[in-house]
Amino acid sequence: MAGHGGRPRMEYDPIIGESICELLATTAFGLDDILDILGKDFTKVPGKSTVYKWLNEHPEFAERSARARELQADTLADLAMKEAQNPRVGVITTSKEWGEEIRTADNVERSKLIVQTIFKRAGQLAPKKYGEKIMQEVSGEVGIKRILVPERIATEPSNREVKPDFS
Asked: How far is 70 from 127, CA to CA, in rounded Å?
């Protein structure tokens, strides 16, 4: 059935659902790229909004997809480690007072940005495993102060004189 003038909605296909989950778990691709890849193997592929509807309507697909995203975090962490080890040689141009300095070198800044971006995405997919650790520090004194309640003093039997301490 067509909605709002778009193409007809595709019914849930467990084979395509499994293929989506497999590609999510084993690649760094997002859903758009995965659907493009699947379009080469299947004659009919759902659109992104249809996949989101499948996630809402089919709990088993939603569970497999969530697990695939957790596994994708491991794939991304592996990718970040490989990226960090590979040089990214390129031309670096720096403006100087006397003109431009052009040199060929490893572009460390670019590699660092790529690695940080990949790890950030891994942290979004699996925050307990790859997310930023937040440390909270508590300081100050801890103690117990004795408070005397006047009603309690009056009702307690005592042979000693009680003097409240208001310090």
From this structure: 9
